[in-house]
Amino acid sequence: MVFDDAILRAAPPLATSGINALWSQEDTVNAFATGTPMYFKADSIGTLAEAAGVDAAGLVATVAAYNRAQAGSEDSLGRQYMPLPIAQAPYYAIQLQSWNLTTYGGLAVDGNLQVIRANGTAIAGLYAAGELLGMGRLMGRSIPGGMSVTPALAFGRQLGHDILRFKA
Ligand SMILES: Cc1cc2nc3c(=O)[nH]c(=O)nc-3n(C[C@H](O)[C@H](O)[C@H](O)COP(=O)(O)OP(=O)(O)OC[C@H]3O[C@@H](n4cnc5c(N)ncnc54)[C@H](O)[C@@H]3O)c2cc1C
């Protein structure tokens, strides 16, 4: 995440909570001042890139493209909400790491947990339960705690107990 001094002052808090405590905008400012790992500050975009370990020419070009888009109407991603340019030193970068906890897409099944094709016909002998069904199936657009493990256990038991007919 790359921004400038004007954005730091004008934007809502850029990070709102730490692992063990609330994290304020003042904490963010202090993190840059004290050289906290993953927080980088520099007087130019090029030196910011070097400090953050990213390609300097690439970041300079990316910021220039953003600023051109910001002066216009939208960027190459279709983004229109760009209130400020990245133009006022010092410049800041925060290293972000993304992760994926569960998978929302999955296999479609019928009422017997038998996997079905796009046309709705069942595939003989193929059943699915657990995360393979996709978390969106049971959670919609939310993430209720326990709604991954519990259905995995419940549907697995249902398959073994009621649906599949294993030979002794
Ligand atoms: C960090 C983390 C925290 C989570 N916290 C929660 C929580 O608090 N509450 C909650 O409800 N859910 C939570 N989840 C999600 C939940 O753990 C999973 O959705 C759930 O365990 C999925 O169960 P599953 O049996 O479908 O799949 P898995 O537990 O992934 O089991 C699949 C098994 O198949 C095995 N396997 C894969 N390929 C093969 C193969 N070719 N041959 C044989 N075996 C194979 C794998 O080794 C694995 O043991 C969390 C997930 C993560 C990653």
Structural class: alpha+beta
Please outline the major beta sheet.
3 strands, antiparallel
The total of beta strands comes to 5
Question: What ligands does this structure carry?
Answer: flavin-adenine dinucleotide
Shape verdict = elongated
CATH architecture of the largest domain: Alpha-Beta Complex
Written description of the protein model:
With 168 residues, the chain is of the alpha+beta class. Helices cover 35% and strands 12% of the residues. It contains 6 helices and 5 strands, in the order βααβααβββαα. A hairpin with a 5-residue loop joins β4 (114-116) and β5. The longest helix has 16 residues, at 56-71. The chain binds flavin-adenine dinucleotide. Flavin-adenine dinucleotide binds at residues 101-102, 130-132, 145-150, 152.
List the keywords:
two-stranded antiparallel sheet; alpha+beta; Flavocytochrome C3, Chain A, domain 1; binds flavin-adenine dinucleotide; 12% strand; three-stranded antiparallel sheet; 168 residues
Write the layout of secondary structure elements.
Blueprint: E1 2-4, H1 5-10, H2 25-33, E2 39-42, H3 45-52, H4 56-71, E3 91-94, E4 114-116, E5 122-127, H5 135-139, H6 149-163
Antiparallel strand pairs: 1-3, 2-3, 4-5
Helix pairs in contact: 3-4
Bound molecules: flavin-adenine dinucleotide.
